[in-house]
Amino acid sequence: MKEFDIQKILSDIDKMYLDDEYISYISDLIENDAVKSMKNFIQHGTTTTLEHCLKVSYVSYKIAKKLNLDAKSTARAGLLHDLFLYDWHKVKEKKPLFKKHGFTHPQKALENACKYFHLNDIEKDIIAKHMWPLTFRKIPKYKESIVVTSVDKYYSTIETFEPLASKIKEKNFQSKKNYSE
Ligand SMILES: [Fe+2]
Ligand SMILES: [Fe+2]
User: Fold this and answer.
1) Ligand that comes closest to the CA of residue 51
2) CATH code for the domain in which residue 92 is found
3) Gap from CA of 80 to ligand 1 centroid (Å)
4) What's CA 25's distance to the chain center, in Å?
5) Tens digit of pLDDT for each residue in 82-123?
6) Is 1 inside a domain boundary?
7) From the CA of 42, how far away is ligand 2's center (Å)?
């Protein structure tokens, strides 16, 4: 197995647009209007759904390459995994637990993705199962799906708590500044 340095992979996120192989895998997706429209929705904190999907896609692709998995399918489905195309914060309608966004959006994303693109079995599995283990019956079938669901959880957590962490930092900075004045 190639050397695996997850810190390096995560810190290389800004090099995404310079990675010709990665771009060649997702170029048709990123030019699609439905995919582009993900920039209009907030996913977590201040991160748009498009930014979130790009990060999940690129880091998952890099990990898949290191593990000798199907990096192309991982990159493509990583980018499409949240193609549900609505602002989930604005869904006010009361629904039973299993009908809530967390449980239903993978299927919606898969339906949308299939409307615009031809997907292989690995890509379909990645999108449909990315909320596992929340969607406990939808167990990932491929290693590529495990990679994407793991990276998705990592970024979902970071993006959710980033605004709070910045506020705390700012507050600490201000109180230190006030104290030293
Ligand atoms: Fe999701
Ligand atoms: Fe996600």
Assistant:
1) 2
2) 1.10.3210
3) 10
4) 16
5) 999 998 888 777 888 888 899 999 999 999 999 999 999 999
6) no
7) 11
